[in-house]
Amino acid sequence: MECGHCCNYSWVDFVFTVLGICTFLFDLGADFWVAAEFYLQGDYHWFGIVLSFVFVSSALLQMFSWSWFKYDTELENFKPRTTTETLLLANGGRCDRLKLLHIFQLGFFLRYVTAIEQGFQVWWKKRNEPGHVIYLTHDLSMLRLFETFSESTPQLTLMIYIIIHNNKAETFQWVSITACFISIAWMVLEYHRSLRFFLPEKSKLGCSSSIVYFLWNLLLIAPRVGAVALFTSVFPPYIGLHFLLLWAALLLWAWAQHTDFMDSRPGEWLYRAMVALIWYFSWFNVAEGKTMGRSLIYHTFMAVDSSILLGTWYWYRDPIVTDHYVLPLLLALLASYLLGLLLKTIYYKLFHPKIWQPLFQAGEDVPDNLVYRSLSPTDALPSVINKRMGALANSFYFSSSMQTGGKTNGIEINAIM
Q1: Can you tell me the distance from the alpha carbon of 88 to that of 222, in angstroms, rounded to the nearest whole number?
Q2: What is the DSSP letter of 357?
Q3: For 44-70, what is each residue's pLDDT tens digit?
């Protein structure tokens, strides 16, 4: 898992990792506070749902983390790089100790500990080994993305529904909503930023592009969450059926795109199930090839679905309770969605980094789950440091043909959404 000289790791990257675990702990703490408040108030139904979101999400993270750890430790060139890894993987007990940590739901925290330890050594002690910490950071970003859409986003939807249902909001609910929004927006941005490490010829996100990227993701996710929450407020029993039917259809769509992310067939289906869950709330590119058509199909379908949810809520709502805010709310959701699409277009037209030398045919997009290195002709070929992110690397190494015909000498590579 070596890295060539094209990799770089700075104090900013280290701070991002530290802030990542801080946002995660803030979100987790808010979840347990909410659960405790519901329990003390006698709302055992909400208490159980909140905890189920937390524990199901944690279990999913541990399964992905364990699968990746197991693969990494079986590589011939694998070796511990930090004190934590050395202690856990010494004397041939690597699998048993790691498995035990994941069973006790600590595997994800282990990744943060090792990433922070290694990141500090690279940044502060100036050790010229950034490849390993970048490898760890990328896996963490993907896991946080999974956690965000399997726990934070459903939790946000639940809190909004409860506020609408009770027609009032308590302090702990606002704290939970704030934590969920921070987790969603921050981790989407952090994941996208982490991807830049694996494409060294691309410029990393600047301040302006980061702000635009942050905003359009937030603006597109918000109306979807609002539509689901509003529909739930009038038909609580049917939101589960709606989710299962839509999730199953999205799962089949993920299968039809022939994803190849995990190292086993069961693991691949677990990944597709997670992708379908993400798609329930937001677009996520998972397959190579042109994504314009798939993105258009997705956004059209989800816009129609959200419109149906909002229309159902409007028809069956209680007018006495909702008349004073129904029009501003619907206009706000519509404005958020349209502004999000506009900012997304602006981002990809003006801010999205370009590769100076295309590595594949013009018009093809790199899937979010596949990342590989771009090299100038004078660069030495570094080893692929993450098989999960580099399955297509060999197909594009040393590509030197420049695309012409009126197209720009650079290709956009779609990251998340």
Answers
A1: 41
A2: S
A3: 999 999 999 999 999 999 999 998 888
